[in-house]
Fold each of these.
Amino acid sequence: MARLDGKVALVTGAASGIGEGTARRFVEEGARVVIADLQADKAQEVAKSLGDAARFVRCDVTNEADIAAAVDDAVAGFGQLDVMVNNAGIVGAVGSIMETSAEAFDATMAVLSRAVFLGTKHAGRVMVPRRMGSIVSLASTAGVIGGLGPHVYTMAKHGVVGLAKSAASEFSQYGVRVNAVAPGNTVTAMTSDVVAGDPDATDKTIKEIQRMSPLGIAGLPEDIAAAILYLASDEARYVTGHTLVVDAGQTTGGSAGPFHGQPANVVREAGKRGVRD
Ligand SMILES: NC(=O)c1ccc[n+]([C@@H]2O[C@H](COP(=O)([O-])OP(=O)(O)OC[C@H]3O[C@@H](n4cnc5c(N)ncnc54)[C@H](O)[C@@H]3O)[C@@H](O)[C@H]2O)c1
């Protein structure tokens, strides 16, 4: 039996990157998936390649009516909604906080924060009456520590982590779970755009991500999809309010800490003196 047999999922931002990888993996695991995205042509291509197991719906996640309609489309087209993946994202406002306009702040938060709130709200609307469902939202390592992303992005992603806990605390009584996945650098159009100024410059992006990766490997959409799949599936039936970090160890501080490779007595002595001696 596949891990999502009989389930229906809605994935926002499924035309590209992590969302596309997740939709494809979900279908491999027996789910039917609504591919929701602003990029209609690309999203339609993804849906078409998945055959009867997928439906396309044009959805701008900054528009509440679009999110509500995408949820309703899953129910009308596939009969129910079991899994909601709030994935659509952008980098948004960049640069110094002192030079970031309120308008750029609002536009970024609309995609990265408000849309996750609305996706959770509308998924809850159809999941709570059935007393089942799993909501997985995309945070980031920038939602766990500072300095890994632009200010507004970092603030929004910390909010995604917070909402997973807050919504989980309301929805657990109804059997609906809410979790987040916090990817580290992953090879997608978004990262290639940042790293190389070209969304298709995959080779350069892989090398750059490998360089920063404590495990020495570059994360692919499939790596993140595997974590989303776990939280979406019944294997995670005892897990809610959690943020699963998938980052090759980047947020552990990497592999070059002061004590690594030192014999225990050296570490103990250094501890007595203070690490910075
Ligand atoms: N790639 C990474 O390194 C990384 C790391 C941490 C978190 N994330 C998060 O993962 C998620 C997916 O990012 P990705 O790297 O796959 O990016 P991507 O650019 O490959 O895909 C993002 C998708 O979201 C869609 N989208 C953007 N704005 C939208 C809107 N208003 N309405 C509907 N769809 C919209 C885009 O059309 C695109 O298809 C994002 O939330 C991102 O913040 C990515």
Note: The first helix runs from residue 17 to 28.
Amino acid sequence: MAILPLRYHPDPVLHRKAKRVNNIDGPVQKLIDDMIETMHDASGVGLAAPQIGISLRLAVIEIPPPDSIGPIVLINPEIVSRTGEREVEEGCLSLPGFRGNIKRSVNVVVKAKDRYGKEFKVKSDGLLAEALEHELDHLNGILYIDHMKEGETPHKIEPVEDSRDGEED
Ligand SMILES: [Zn+2]
């Protein structure tokens, strides 16, 4: 496994719609393992392939304790439904040192293939719902700053050492 270098806004790969994964082959399996390792190294709750410069519809999510969900591997994920609206403060590994307030859904249902090619559905709320919307946005070339109200900008945060408090995806 390997830790892959992250891409940062305004890298064009982050602003482009990613392509579907056609074959879940050996290189894709290696990519999944490397993405999980990279997400752990960066203390992120999620990572999408465009964030390491690969324009494929592939993302990983892991929700830290106490919920401890995942790692979830999402291949060609699609939103099945989303309901409700709430305000969240969001960060992104591709925009280090900043957070911004945006609207996200309350409940999100996503379907995707897992790393074995099996289709599954995940029903979510809370941080998992937020992470799912955030990572699926990445696959469509959308960053959380694209959801901010006109005239609003992300605010700087103090660097957090060795912790998952940042909840960056
Ligand atoms: Zn992100």
Note: Helices lie at 26-41, 126-139.
Amino acid sequence: MANGAVFTACRYEHANNITGPGHATLLTGCYPARTGIVGNDFCDLASGKCGYCAQDSAGVFGARNMLVPTLGDVLRKISPRSKVVGVGLKDRAAILMAGPSATTCVWYDANARRWTSSAAYPQPSWLSSINATVNVDRYIGAVWSPLPLPSGLPVVPMDSVAEEGAFPGGNSAFPHRILDPSHPKFMASVLISPFSMEMLFDVVTEVVDRENLGRDKSPDVLCVGVSTTDYIGHVFGPDSWEVLDVYARADREIKDLLEHLNRRVGKNNYVLVVTSDHGVAPIPEVIRRQAEQQRTTIDAGRIREVEIQVRIDSALSTMLGPLAPNSSYVREIYEPSIYLNWNAIGKADRARVIETTTRAVASHPGIGIALSSDDVTQKRRPAAIDTATWNYIARSTFAGRTGEVVMYPKPYWIIGGNVATHGTPYDYDRWVPMMWYGAGIAPLTSDIKCAPVDIAPTLARLLGVRLGDADGRPLPLNTTTRR
Ligand SMILES: [Zn+2]
């Protein structure tokens, strides 16, 4: 932060602020309406097939679903000797940043408890040797105690907050103990701790060396998806001591990585960008209590997907007739999309079915926005939705992949079973860090309005590469001329 360019007002300009759409945006410079990655999972309305954003129809992990090239894809075309490498704790983070033509893409398979890749990418020769050294066994019996708090913190974090979640096999208070490896939640206890981040950065350091990144005249791209911060945030909430501690530790990991790059690649031979795939909302019960303590109230709460499904089934049963046992008029709910089950609905009037569904969704007290995706793609904005929010939603919508109906909670309401989460069009969910450091980048702190779609066009300009028709624009970095 001291020696780089820090953009303090960086916000996503799309509404579906979750992992898949966020990572797909980061190095394409395009909104989900262009990348086609509208959710972590989505359905194809024409074929009726549903699946995971980073898997093809045969189940192979890869970036086939992404409809625009990443910076790495563009670079590889004009500079075939360039390496494009993705490393992530989550497969979709590594895959959607690196793109389909990545030369190496590895991620952590939590079920197999090992680093892995897929048939979509060349198999790295070093994978088994990395698995031999960077594996979860070294955390058996480990304990997560917080680092000492620095002095002068504006707010001292509380450790045990009633509304927080519990560490796997434990509670909400430090220290957190990694479970026995035979425990079904052993892997979760490692992932929801800084140990998973340490493992990730150890792999990143190894990959820099083994792939000889940044060592010749052809520029390389290394994409790193951390995700430990996301796992911990979901359990303890954004204002927890656990989140504070993991960011303090992330700072140290980045310091070690920069020192490694300085030694190996050279201080003036790389550029680092730090950002996030989405923001996060506070725990609803925490802000409700905080409001009560200030003798006011705040409308915040939780929506379970099943509550939405029950409302839709009830409304459509009235319109279409009773459902067969164990069936539903809803095919899938993949936030923010609702996909209808046309096999059960039959030949009923499509527009009327969608209108009835939209009304049923909107009747939930926590739902702020329920829309037909046809209305979004055909630009029929209801007066109740402001233009900015409407644009965020439109940029998240891809005709044929977004569900027939989309829903977003009211501010401070969340959908799903996590203690804290993200996925809405509101300020707190769109706000992310953006920091630049390295070759030719002068120190700068800027509060100009900017967005993660600007990252790929900016990197393209630094590399002297034409990215094509991206949604973002190059940032006004104070670069010094070099080379
Ligand atoms: Zn998350």
Note: The CA atoms of residues 189 and 302 lie 25 Å apart.
Amino acid sequence: MIQDIPNINDISDFLQEQTGWQLWPVKGLLEAEDYFYLLSHRYFPVATFVSSNTDIDFSQLPDLWHDIFGHIPLLFSPIYSNFLQNLGNQYITIKDVNDKDIEQEIVRLFWYTIEAGVCDEKGKLRVYGASQLSSIKEIKYALSDRQIKYPFKLENVINLTVEIDRVQDRLFEIPSFEYLRVIQDDFDSYIASISYGMLRKQQ
Ligand SMILES: [Fe+2]
């Protein structure tokens, strides 16, 4: 059977109809500020190019395959898409108080959930991180018996440096996909307390 390659406009129209999200074509990596700004407005940036076949197992940079197959199906889940939009909102809130450390913490939370996240589903390990979903090497490694999965603890995640140039050997497992809501609430409270404190200091 012949299949067309994904058409970004068609996918975007369908996605908008179903979820309110739209795709935003990009030619390369965006600055974090621009990326999170788009997320906060329910636009998902999608690379318009495909990586070289030498990177078929693993690529440190997102391409069309990564964005379309790794992220877009999950946008149909309100839990995932609200979590993602909220990260965008949190980044913008923190940008206003200009705290680089907290910006990094948001990037790390994004990374260890949206990009490199695993969860339990009725006793089975599932992958929802787009880095794993779009890479044969990453997904095999994530689902292997190797000791690379750790229980998700917000304070550990937001303090762990992100290294995008290699297969992830530290993944944080959430007890269920729905647990993203708990993380969202906890991180919201944390961001609210920080931004309130910062704004008070500036007065
Ligand atoms: Fe991604």
Note: Strands lie at 22-26, 43-47, 117-121, 124-127, 149-151, 171-174.
